[in-house]
Design a protein that fits this description.
The protein is mostly helical. The protein is 73% helix and 0% strand. The protein has one domain.
Length: 100
């Protein structure tokens, strides 16, 4: 994958996560004072699901500072290894003309 595709995918992931956080928070705020119908209230179940989603994302975000440096180090190491292994000398890389 080239860098522009990676950036595009990164922006899409960022937008999706932002929308999930925003929409879950908005749903909780809008429906916080609904008229509850009892034990099987669908709005209460949706609010609980939104709270669970926000809690899960918060837990994942809390673990990111530990994970990101390791991921960056692994990515850098992979780039170095790939560049080292792909450096071989051929007639084409030396721009040798093969004329008869």
């Amino acid at each position: 994958m080239n860098k522009s595709r990676i950036r595009a995918v990164s922006w899409i992931v960022l937008v999706v996560f932002s929308l999930v956080i925003f929409c879950s928070s908005a749903f909780i705020i809008i429906h916080a004072d609904h008229e509850c119908t009892g034990v099987d209230c669908s709005v209460c179940m949706e609010i609980a699901q939104c709270q669970n989603t926000l809690r899960t994302l918060a837990t994942a975000a809390a673990g990111m500072p530990k994970f990101i440096p390791a991921l960056c180090a692994a990515a850098s190491l992979c780039c170095i290894v790939i560049k080292h292994l792909s450096e071989h000398t051929t007639l084409i890389s030396l721009k040798v003309e093969l004329l008869n």
